[in-house]
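Thread: Modeling a multi-component assembly for a lab meeting

Hi all, long-time lurker, first post. My supervisor asked me to bring a structural picture of a complex we are working on to next week's group meeting, and I have zero experience with this. I have the sequence lines for every component (654 residues in total). Could someone generate the structure of the whole assembly? Inputs are pasted exactly as I received them:
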Amino acid sequence: MTTHYLFRSTSEALALAVHRQTFKRCLVLLGLTLGLLLLYLCLGSTRIPPMDVIATLISPDTSEHRFVIQTLRLPRGLLALLVGAGLGVSGALLQQLVRNPLASPDIIGISDGAALGAVLFLAWLAGTVSLTWLPPVAIASAAITATVIYGLAWTPGSTTAVAPIRLVLVGIALAAALKAVATLVLVMSPLSTTVQAYIWLTGTVYGAQWQDVTRLLPWTLTLIPVAMLAARALTLLGMNDEQSRGLGLAVGRYRLLLLACSVGLAGSAVAFAGGMAFVGLMAPHLARRYTGQTSTGLILGAGLTGACLVLMADLLGRVAFLPQDLPAGIFVSGVGAPFFIYLLYRRRS
Amino acid sequence: MAHRFTPTALLGLILSASLSFANAETLTISHAMGTAELDAPAQRVVTLYQGANDAAVALGITPVGVVDSWVEQPMYHYLREDLAGVTHVGLETQPNLEAIAALNPDVIIGAKMRHEKIYDQLAQIAPTVMHETVFQFKETLDLVAEATGKTDAAAEWHDQWDARIQSFQTQVSESDVAWPQEVALLNFRNDHARIYYSSFAGNILNELGFERPAGHQEDIWGVKLTSKESIPSMNADVFFMFMTETDPTVMENFNSWTSHPLWNTLTAVQNDQVYRVNEVDWNMGGGPIAAERMIDSVFEHYGLD
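Re: Modeling a multi-component assembly
Sure thing. I ran the full set together rather than chain by chain. Output:
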């Protein structure tokens, strides 16, 4: 009896094995995500019945809800999903790469790098340069930060190039330094910047437009599949370096590739939605309990869980305190953290 | 069928002629984010920042939608009566776009500083005009007036304002107050203190003829002070201080700053020229009515009318 679904290219250069049960559970999770998206599209200042929402999605031109669904809720919901998926997968990759369950993009400095770029942009360039330039600036500064972390953690002459623990420690130290600089910039900048930057640091998908979705989508659509294809290596990288090298893996090269995927996913997500802390840490842990420990299951599960988390948080932000529309970041930690603690608590027995 | 001039066709002609005449009256308003076109002066107005809420009321307009206030939520006491029953569309920082769309407005008044990101979406709901900032109350008044066809009312307000400023200057220079005076505008938060320079109230004080101490003249909003060692930098002939007096942590911090030995070395403190004023009128309101209330309190503290 086969326990895995196997997908491979004709030349067998690329292959992907997915555990059957994992596959089914991911499908359930996907269904859940779509259901949540439908709920998201129904609720808001004005409640729209599900059938009307579906009718609007099919033929927007004839619908009275066109503006609310097509222009406001749908791009915002999709952006929330992409951001959550990016952060979830990024966290899963990092935790596996550095063999540490505490790793996440907002702990080892990637998010802080993006945040500093955004804060500098808001303090110095906002008003004169259009805000559409904020995401590229944030992505670039996340990439620079990651390069610096990698460079500082690098040991010349070592066969594996970087030791995971050095990566974590350098990252944490750099994150602290970047936070300090961002705070300094905020203290010295105009009050309006502080207000804007505070919202950005909390994390929000408010005001999302289609162009935001189409600018973020290529990152998610390229990097998650790349990570999936390298999943086999990810499993091996979770062991110690000697074992994985013994099994014939180019440890240094794969670690760099997967690290780059993780940075790209987190940097792009943070660039469009700001801080949104905790998703990268929490999503992989939640996924592990449901979609299992295999790397493919973990990646898919963490992506879908992260997407659900951010979507749910933004739904709460939009409807919990009507007419106020609050940043999703508040609810990610507010709802996510207690739930996370509950899961850990239940597991004790 | 031959075309004939029937009474109906004639009526149609007259109608279309008058319509095109109306079209000639299209309002084109240039603002911080570009230009907006209105077919007619707006009746249904949504205001997205405090100063615009205030300016609408000053012009005798009741908006169909306003944003929540920063303190005294959901609306500042001084605007409550005029804005009773008006729909709220959430916070100034993230106004609820769906709620705005549901109000079906003729014009939306925003501030680039806060709403640049959502300009495109707002403009799809209704013509949207934006000011650069949120505290230039005179320009806010003019912007709201232009969009609603109330420019006469705005001009009248400006005349009244100028007369009031003139009256203060005449009266204060005839009084026994040593004039001009150097003023410092102080604000206490729960973990730091601030000196405001070129702010809403700071600019009005300058218009009244107050001067700023040498260290306070930079054209920025102001500074944050975190250490009580900086108390001497507050020094001036007169202090106006505002804070959220309902917040016990703010009052605790205020008491701790003002009981510091350095506090008593300040000129204004020694000459008993320290006035506590209302933070809504002096800082949060940001509109023409708040400005009037603010100078009323200056008149009062100087015993003028």
